[in-house]
Design brief:
Blueprint (H helix, E strand, L loop, with lengths): L3 H9 L8 H36 L15 H31 L19 H12 L3 H14 L10 E3 L2 E4 L19 H14 L6 H12 L6 E4 L3 E5 L5 E4 L3 H10 L2 H7 L1
């Protein structure tokens, strides 16, 4: 996480000047769609309430039972709820894009305005991302991948072992339920391992589709007797004691991975 001074410096600059052109294009397209549909609801809100107020002023008897059927609050609240849903969807779409592209984790943005005519901006959502992640989103995502992977080894029973061209990861996954072995759908460590391998092999924040395809396959079923070949000429094998073995193409490659993620230092300091 950034220090308070780094955060303040990050948000002094227009956040849209700090993101890639492709990111700007996505944000612009998403905002136009959001604004187009939101404006319809906002106009509906203003028009309906104007009509109700005008009608209320013409009614002599305020106890008129029909008046309660379309009172201010009964009409206002559902529309405001729809408007807030639009805000949440827009925020989720913008944040989801950056999380997926850069492999970032950050707290979501909560807007403070409750005014029905309020329109969210891309800038305030992106500002929130940059404030937490820094101005270089790709570098921040890479550092988060490294940190999440290192956090898998907080206790000695999880410490990995380097053996020739293989790295063994004990107690590294959870079995799913069923008659055939499969990866539990709530398992979090295998995706983190795949992210780490992708960063090491391809210098990429995002896993290749072939990794995601294997992950989907393992959640349905995997074979203890099979070594799965990953893009990049690696193999991965599951063991019944919940160990994972990753075999690299050479001892040198395995050592580079070990050093890249400082696994030796981690196991020595804990």
């Amino acid at each position: 996480m950034l220090s308070i001074f780094e955060k303040l410096d990050a948000v002094k600059i227009n956040c849209m000047e700090l993101i890639a052109e492709e990111d700007k294009q996505f944000c612009d397209k998403e905002f136009k769609a959001y604004q187009t549909h939101l404006s319809v609801l906002q106009k509906m809100y203003v028009d309906i309430l104007s009509t109700i107020h005008s009608h209320e002023n013409k009614i002599i008897n305020p106890q008129n039972p029909y008046l309660n059927l379309y009172s201010f609050d009964k009409v206002k609240d559902p529309i405001i709820e729809m408007i807030q849903t639009f805000h949440r969807i827009f925020t989720a779409n913008i944040e989801g894009y950056f999380k997926n592209r850069y492999n970032l984790v950050f707290d979501t943005y909560y807007y403070k305005e409750s005014n029905s005519t309020y329109t969210l901006t891309v800038e305030e959502i992106v500002d929130n991302i940059i404030e937490q992640s820094g101005t270089d989103l790709r570098a921040s995502g890479k550092q988060q991948i490294i940190s999440r992977f290192q956090e898998c080894f907080q206790y000695s029973r999880y410490f990995p072992t380097l053996k020739n061209n293989k790295i063994q990861f004990p107690d590294f996954y959870w079995l799913g339920y069923g008659s055939t072995p499969s990866l539990d759908y709530s398992d979090k460590k295998i995706p983190v391992l795949l992210d780490a391998l992708s960063l090491f092999l391809f210098d990429s924040n995002k896993r290749p589709e072939s990794f995601d395809e294997l992950l989907r396959q393992w959640k349905d079923e995997f074979d203890f007797n099979q070594s799965y070949t990953l893009e990049g000429n690696l193999t991965l094998r599951f063991f019944k004691n919940r160990r994972i073995d990753v075999a690299f193409t050479s001892l040198e490659s395995a050592e580079k991975f070990w050093q890249f993620f400082e696994l030796g230092e981690l196991t020595q300091t804990k």
